[in-house]
Amino acid sequence: MPAVTGPAANGPAANGVAAFEIEVLEGLVPYARREVEALGATVMAEHDDGLTVRAVGTDALLALRLASAVYLRLHFEVPRPKALLGDRHFRRLLAGVREVAGRGRFDGFRFAAAGADSAVFRRLARALQEATGLRFDADGGELLLRVRPVPEGSGWEVLVRLTPRPLSARSWRVCNRAGGLNATLAAAMVAASRPRPGDRFLNLMCGSGTLLAERFLAGAATGLTGLDVDADALACARANLEAAGAAGACRLVHGDIREAPLDRGAYDVIVADLPWGDAVGSHADNRSLHPAVLEAADRLGGPEARVVLLNHELKLFRRVLAEQGWWRVASERRVAHGGHYPHLYVLRRR
To answer: What percent of the chain has pLDDT over 70?
Structure first.
């Protein structure tokens, strides 16, 4: 086991500027990059599932709404993970783990790596446990260390997650429902709507209120309204919005989109996560629901309305879009969501 004494040589942020890996859902990297660059961080590399950035400090990165997780990135010019047990490399790894562990409460640590149950990783776990006092918990450790070869480069990297849970696990989510929308994907839908302070924002089929909470947290709006036919869903949304501090800013309406008790032409932005026909709804119901959603958006949206929809019934939706006369596709993006690949649509009036 390596000895650990004295200051860490080559510490992870010795000059005040550290490298971080921003984990992003597939398809959302362009949105996340704009959010990261708005913080003043420098993007060093872009990948299908994230960004490598340099930033001064970490607090701003932890406020990202389009990132699934943020990791301190430690790059080691070594041929294999066994070399991390060498004195110089272990000191640097230890400094990174201590830096992250010192920011919050972590119930143990664990590895995510090929061969994480090998003798090498067992030795590394014992060394870190003895040096830090953190308990090694292969299944439930909250301080996550991802160890992998450097993508398209040389050496290995250790990614130390800065938070006990992913950033996508929002603190305001106190109520869950089947088929609930990932919060980072909801934040991307809000970003795609180009939010403005004067927006009158409507979430059709609002479910547990994820899109409403993310729009509230994105900045000022003139009004936020959620509509759902399910009273239980509205109760869940109400609990989440209260936890997000948004209860007073949001109006929740019980009703069907086909006969919604809402003012005609009253909304600048209309968003919806359409049922996928598995956890929520059915494929048969979607054949009538999809045209009804577009008709409702036409009826309730203003002259310059922006419509943002997430949909997994791609063939059906494309056919419905071709048959209706109200909306054209301004942009379409394939995104990842829990093993599925729905498309995020931005629609504008024809």
So the answer is: 93
